[in-house]
Amino acid sequence: MADDRLDRDVIVLGLVVVCGTVMVILDTTIVNVALRTLGTDFHAGLATIQWVVTGYLLALATVIPLTGWAIDRFGARRVWTTSIALFVLGSALAGSAWSIETLIAFRVVQGLGGGMLMPTGMAILTMAAGPRRMGRVMSIVGVPMLLGPVFGPVVGGWLVQRADWRWIFFVNLPVGAAALLLAWWKIPPGRPREDGAALDLRGLVLLSPGFVLLIYGLSRASGSGGFGHPATIAWLTAGALLVAAFVAHAARRGDRALIDVRLYRDRTYATASVVAFLVGTVMLGSTLLIPLYYQVGRGEGALTAGLLMAPQGIGAALSMPLAGMLTDRFGAGRVVPFGAVVLTLGTIPFTQLHAGTSFALLGGAMFVRGLGIGATMMPSMSAAVATLDRAAVPRASSALNIILQLGGSFGAALLAVVLSRELTERLPAAGRAPGGGVGGDIPARIRPLLAPHLADAFSVTFWVALALGAALVVPACLLPHRGTRDLNADGPPPPGLG
Asked: What pTM did the predictor assign?
């Protein structure tokens, strides 16, 4: 039907949102390839340097729960532009950092600005396009989420090698300026809700630190001791207790809570949330694992590893628009299970690695993985909010992004723990990096001797990733089997942003 198509204004609005969100997605991965250079310049060890990444991610997690309240209180455009301005400020400060302590602090400023951009952008597009076109709208937002982890290491590696590490932050300045101008031009001003509830301060005190402790505990699990280490258990337990206390508090407060936990009474939303968690686990966890295999297991540089990731991004970019249209027509319950199966098939070659596995074979597998990822992530997220009341969309989108990031943190920590254990068991002490990690350089003269052991260690780890991908099939089959265009066919046309 013609009125179900994405009109020009919605498409342009989608491109405006992508312009802002691409900075955050790229910056999540672009810094990883510069960590060794940062350690050298600031004379800091890996235990300190890793906080350049961890501090940014923890800041992202901290502010995501505020998004729904902020949109209700100030309007979507104001939240969007303020977040971009804070992110750009953090980027400028990080590029000018004079010590490792200041760099970590300025990365936190970046995260505080970037945390609200993705959920706010999703809410803007959702409210503009309406539930019947959710699949295609979410496909627009999802492109930078999938391409960012591919191009981030490539861009970062090129800038570090050809220019200076400070440009991995300064590159955000012109993009951010353009995003601000486009936002004032195209995003409707919106109307803050006069009847909106006051900020749930008690919920904020419980939820945000709870997620910070959980993510910190998960990052600790990737080090020595794994999930069984007493310190890791303590951090995870503390975080879980705070989140549980928030759930009890939010159940009493209802829609005045920071996140309305009653949304999970909706079967579709609850099921889609499980899918989002598993998608985050598989996608973000594997996105860290695969470049590590190319660099540690095969001895390739960071830039080369980034280029070898490109087929996955191409596959995802090709499948996402088609998956969005099919979801609108046939329902996520018919699209997402197929995507989960394709994703699992694309992971199988990585479980059969040997010292000389063909890069062409792995490139084809990456392309298949991309097709599967593109057919699972955004269709499931669009199904989650398609049946909800329009007023609940901002808070629901915020909760989904929290779950996606928690899934990614869990996946990265779990796969890192498995890989670290396998490397420790299979490699002699001479072939390990200092501290038992997987960084550092393996001398060329001993790499042929260690290559089979490295391949075996990564193969076992990819079996875990395969199991996580296969687990997606079960909840995916429980998603709606009706197209999103039919779920609210009799509803009123989408109103303007407010």
From this structure: 0.75
